[in-house]
Every structure is written in C-alpha cells, then in structure tokens.
C-alpha cells in the first residue's frame, strides 16, 4: 500500500514539475526537505521535523501551520503544497518515500544513475573519472558517484549501481579464489 501511495503522489508531482518546466527546482527543494526528514544517529537534534510530522497527537492544523511557516520562502510553494496535501490525507509517514520516488523519477528522466563506490582508502579524482567513464558507457547514463571508506576491504574498491555490484577488492578476489579451490 505504501508503495502505491508514494508512486501516485510522486507521479503527480513529477508531471506538475514537467508541465511547469520546474522539474530541476522541484528536485532541488525535494532533496532539501528529504534531508530535513532524515535521521542522523550522530546528531541528537536531527529530524525534529520528522518527529513533529509523524507525532500522532499533534493536530493537522498545527502541522500545516508549522510547515508553512518554516518552509515558505525556503522551498517552492509546490513542495509546501505537496506536504500540506500529504498531511491532510494523513500520509505523513509516506512523505520520505514520496520524495525519494520523485527524485528517482527525475534521475531517470535526466538519464542519471548514482553509483556507490566503497574503498579501503580515498580514491583520487582521476581514478573516479575513469570509473565514471566505464560505468557511463556500460549503463548509457550520466553517472553521479558517492564514495565511502571501509577499512576492512584491505584494498581495491566495490561499486553498487542500479542493483548491480562490481567487487574489485582484495577481499573479494580472495573469496573468489577460495571458492574456486573448494
């Protein structure tokens, strides 16, 4: 049910952005609101907005008033309107999924794909450009790379993109060797 809800809202919002020629602005503002809704375990104050919107004892009118007061002028009116509609339909818990689905549709429309590259040590920009070029050719899309460090990998790197995993780590190579010997 939640997936159906997020799909309907995100489809309608995508169509509105496309019709108004403001898809990029909508995406930028949706990303901002989504980041405000995310919970960060390292920050005790993170996602006060999420806690507020999801609280069952706070009235609809109070939620709408706070959203309008805090977001008007910071994000486009259409994003505020979307949030208000979601609140009125009592679907606040679906808002992160709606925004995520919308951003995914925008990426598909712009032929963008996000790749997550994990390595034992930071990868220099030249190597990232090489990885980006290979992935772009393979997937036929512009690639946005997000990097992270995992010191347990020992060496090499791992790439996750659109449900595919490419493991070029030392640990992965050793596991493949071990499996072929057994």
Helix/strand structural class: alpha+beta
What proportion of the residues is helical, as a percent range?
55-70%
CATH homology superfamily of the largest domain: N-terminal domain of the delta subunit of the F1F0-ATP synthase
Total discrete domains = 2
Note the total helix count: 8
CATH class of the largest domain: Mainly Alpha
Distance separating the two termini:
45 Å
Report on the biggest sheet.
Answer: 4 strands, mixed
Uncertain regions spanning at least 5 consecutive residues: none
Rg from Cα: 20 Å
State the strand order across the main sheet. Answer: 2-1-3-4
- From N to C, what is the helix and strand string? HHHHHHEHEEEH
Silhouette: elongated
Write the CATH fold name of the largest domain.
Peroxidase, domain 1
Mean pLDDT value: 89
From the 3D coordinates, which CATH architecture of the largest domain would you assign? Orthogonal Bundle
* Beta-strand residue percentage: 15-25%
């Amino acid at each position: 049910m939640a997936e159906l809800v997020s799909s309907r809202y995100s489809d309608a919002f995508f169509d509105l952005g496309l019709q108004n020629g403001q898809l990029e602005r909508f995406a930028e503002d949706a990303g901002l609101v989504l980041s405000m809704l995310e919970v960060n375990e390292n920050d005790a104050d993170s996602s006060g907005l999420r806690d507020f919107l999801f609280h069952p004892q706070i009235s609809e009118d109070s939620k709408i008033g706070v959203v309008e007061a805090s977001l008007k002028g910071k994000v486009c009116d259409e994003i505020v309107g979307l949030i208000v509609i979601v609140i009125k339909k009592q679907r606040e818990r679906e808002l992160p999924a709606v925004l995520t689905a919308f951003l995914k549709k925008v990426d598909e429309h712009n032929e963008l794909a996000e790749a997550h590259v994990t390595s034992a040590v930071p990868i220099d920009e030249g190597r990232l450009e090489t990885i980006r070029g290979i992935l772009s050719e393979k997937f036929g899309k512009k690639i946005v790379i997000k990097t992270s460090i995992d010191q347990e990998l020992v060496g090499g790197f791992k790439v996750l993109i659109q449900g595919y995993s490419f493991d070029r780590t030392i640990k992965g190579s050793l596991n493949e060797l071990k499996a072929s010997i057994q």
